[in-house]
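Morning F.,

Quick status update on the modeling queue. The single chain you submitted on Monday has been processed. Sequence for confirmation:
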Amino acid sequence: MRKTGHGKKVVVAMSGGVDSSVAAAILKEEGYDVTGVTMQLFDGADYVVKDAALVADYLGIEHSVLDLKDQFKNKIMHYFIDEYGKGRTPNPCAVCNNIIKFGALMDYAKSLNADFFATGHYARVERAENGLFYLLKARNIEKDQSYFLFSLKQKQLDKLFFPLGRVESKEQVRKMAANYNLPVATKSDSQDICFIPDGDYVSFLHSMGIEGESGDFVLQDGSVVGRHKGIFCYTVGQRRGMGIAWEEPLYVLRIEPETNRVVVGIEQELLSSGLEASDCNWIVPLKGDSFEAECKIRYRHKPALCRVTILENNHCAVKFHKPEKGVTPGQAVVFYEGEKLLGGGWIDSL
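Structure tokens below.
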């Protein structure tokens, strides 16, 4: 591979997984002075540090560990719990990227006098002729993670590398890991929510002392059709696990923490014509106060055509060209123009 790094220092966030390990190997091969840093985020994850240290030792690069357990608990785990208590569905990965990975960890990289900071995310950064940096979808669309990165700023993009963004497939990443003889080449992929490895978020909330108060399942007209186990056990669009006998399958339409009710209805009632979002971040200057774009309302959502109208106080209103199903307060809505990510915000209301 062509040497391009000229010895400049880059700190790589190493999780001990295949992706971040390959990212570190690519940058070292390109001639960068690579240092690996691994975050300690919660108890019981010593294997993360162990695997990352193994890879760093094999690559012959420096490696350090940054203890962020208190910050992760206070900023991410508590947020996760609080959102469910408000009847919203949290997105901890996007929040963690903003506060922890591209916040505290990137600040740590600066303290090491690094020229650049890199992660194993599947996304791309390109600089345009006008000097602006664009955040682009990964070449591997199936693994593209740009959705989780909408909060990035220009000054961060200036210092960021995403080496896997240009790799065409996960199979190619696996092959690269094998060719580099990385100790984690056959390691399985990690889960989306790192602190809930089995995916059972309800059990996690119970373990954190959250006990839900039972209440009513109701239809849109207020008719009671059953009893729920606590609002945090449900999310918009959910169909299974409600125990309601009905002539048609019922879905969660809305959660009302103020009345402790879960509103349910048929699939057609899940459709929404638009939404409002808050805390919007725009990566590049916008073309006016109203514009056409594609949007994703959750990570695996197929991009939908919409019109975005900028409102006061970093809010925006979104009108879908065609009604969309399962708009969920607490999730991110992220806007694209082709492969360029324009920005995004947090869904507040329908």
